[in-house]
Amino acid sequence: MKNFCAVFLCGVMLLGCNSPQKQQTPLHALFDEEWNFRLAEEPVFATAAGNHQYDDRLADVSIAAKIRRVEFWRNLLSRLSKIDRAGLNHDDQINYDIFKLQLEDHLANFEYKAYLIPFTVDDGFHIGFARLPNQAPRAAVQDYENYLKRLRAFPRFVAQHIELLKEGLQTGMTMPQIVLQGFEVTMATHLVDDPAKSVFHAPFTKFPAAIPENEKARLTQAGEAAIREAIISGYQTLLDFFVKEYIPNARTSIGASELPNGREYYAQRVKFFTTLNMSVDEIHQLGLSEVRRIHNEMMEIIKQVGFKGDFAAFLKFLRTDPQFYAKTPDELLKEASYIAKRMDAKLPALFKKLPRLPYGVQPVPAHLAPKYTGGRYVGPALDSTEPGYYWVNTYALENRPLYILESLTLHEAVPGHHLQNALAREMEGLPNFRRFTYLSAFGEGWGLYSERLGLEAGFYTNPYSNFGRLTYEMWRACRLVVDTGIHAKGWTREQAMEFLGSNTALSLHEVRTETDRYISWPGQALAYKIGELKIRDLRRKAEEALGGKFDIREFHDVVLRNGAIPLSTLEGEVNAYITERVSN
């Protein structure tokens, strides 16, 4: 299953155009053909990518449309296979491999009917749609007219998704019932008694100077009518369907292996999210090994602070002592901002090339916060005047410990996702599909590597914060065990929560929301630790091979210079860098 937020948000962070020389080759002709097809088929994505031909519409997600897309992708893959990869230059071999990976994933998504589950517990088509007010252009009257047409199209968009969800109920391809507790808030939030209270009203609250004064009242009236008649009614229809039909009839099993062709489906998800040929058992055992190693490091910190009690008692102390929790949302946001700004000052010592795009710190939107993760990076649309944003979840402050905030900030802001994605956004000479590619093993592996990089930058001087770093690393190691346990080894939700809760200092609220996330998004949780371990292994190899020639700034630039690439490709790039530096 593709996650809408991951594909959309990470996609909009990147931009580019094909180089004129490469457009004439058969390979790049395929790239252009797929790109133009994608823009037409995914109008909201097209808007975010800076193409405004389709600003007045939403995607067709009917079964017929999906069949049409699959036929197109299958034809592209067949034509791609006739191109001699060995005869391509180095850059185009990378392009070829990633393009093939993406086409194969599209086809697998259809083959396993994963499109019948178009959401996860913290994301989905209806959640992504609620970001439209911040991403739609509004520089001219026509932009507002386009926005109104999209609002009016929402009931059709909902109806098509309900048809997919109904087929999922009939075929057993559903989200597990247990993880949908509280999910209705993602719909009910939009059932406002006054259109002005809706998130979709924001564009009518403050008009840009280019909008004539005599148009503002008309557009506002039209917007409020569209919110009443299309948005509220669409979300009400969706909510009624979920509460009355979907949730009561959703499957009671939780593992992907329990889905139709589930074991094959999960194996495909594992390969896609890790970009490596690792077996489920190999990943599970690697996770157990990492859990043991990190646990030993955690015990050393418990000794360091002189705590009298066992590991479980220490976790209880961290989860309940008020000293570890902010008293107000502003306090949490200010602390996150301070950490981010401190790391900004460290970046020149760690990287030669830094991005131009700045970032801000914001709370997770209220309509998402109850079921949302602790923080996330959200990139701007292509031609937006917005920066990137590091979202911090200020909901239920008693579940947001300060001792994990350094790790979270370094992962989501800098040197993690903002730096990584902003650099990719500014790359030149790549085909468009590469600039809109996000591979979890690379991106999330870099994010976790960035957390550890804080040690070298002078962070985690407080032992509790260092324990927070380790608990975040332990969290990702546990994911290797829990994800494979749930989806391939018959683990229960309670078993997964107990393993995660007993090995990390995550709040019990986060233990529950994270477990539900893994259940709803098979395989993705494996990407973090697998990617981080590969980057660390490659750095170790470079340090040993280059000795005094090793430059951390050069190494980081090599890792990030190609944007998101499979881990096997990254290994080849680092090996080439080592060979080049040894000979110089």
Layout of SSEs?
Layout: H1 4-11, H2 26-41, H3 43-48, H4 63-81, H5 90-111, E1 119-120, E2 123-124, H6 125-129, H7 132-135, H8 141-171, H9 185-188, H10 202-205, H11 213-249, H12 262-274, H13 280-304, H14 311-320, H15 329-346, E3 359-363, E4 375-378, E5 388-392, H16 405-412, H17 417-425, H18 432-435, H19 440-456, H20 463-488, H21 493-503, H22 508-520, H23 527-546, H24 552-560, H25 567-583
Helix pairs in contact: 2-4, 4-5, 8-11, 13-20, 15-16, 16-19, 16-20, 19-23, 20-21, 21-22, 23-25
Commentary on this structure:
The strands form two sheets. The protein has a three-stranded mixed β-sheet. It starts with a helix and ends with a helix. The protein is built from 25 helices and five strands. The chain is globular, with a radius of gyration of 24 Å. The chain is mostly helical. Strand 1 and strand 2 form a beta hairpin. It has helices at residues 4-11, 26-41, 43-48, 63-81, 90-111, 125-129, 132-135, 141-171, 185-188, 202-205, 213-249, 262-274, 280-304, 311-320, 329-346, 405-412, 417-425, 432-435, 440-456, 463-488, 493-503, 508-520, 527-546, 552-560, 567-583, and strands at 119-120, 123-124, 359-363, 375-378, 388-392. Among the domains are: 118-252, no CATH class; 535-583, no CATH class.
Shape: globular
**Would you tell me the structural class of the helices and strands?**
mainly alpha
Biggest beta sheet summary: 3 strands, mixed
User: Which strands sit side by side, in order, in the main sheet?
Assistant: 3-5-4
Return the average pLDDT rounded to an integer: 93
Number of helices: 25
Intertermini distance: 46 Å
Oligomer: single chain
How much strand content do the residues show?
under 5%
According to DSSP, the number of beta strands is: 5
Write the H/E string, N to C: HHHHHEEHHHHHHHHHHEEEHHHHHHHHHH
Spans of at least 5 consecutive residues whose pLDDT stays below 50 are 1-23
Helix content: 55-70%
Q: Tell me the radius of gyration.
A: 24 Å
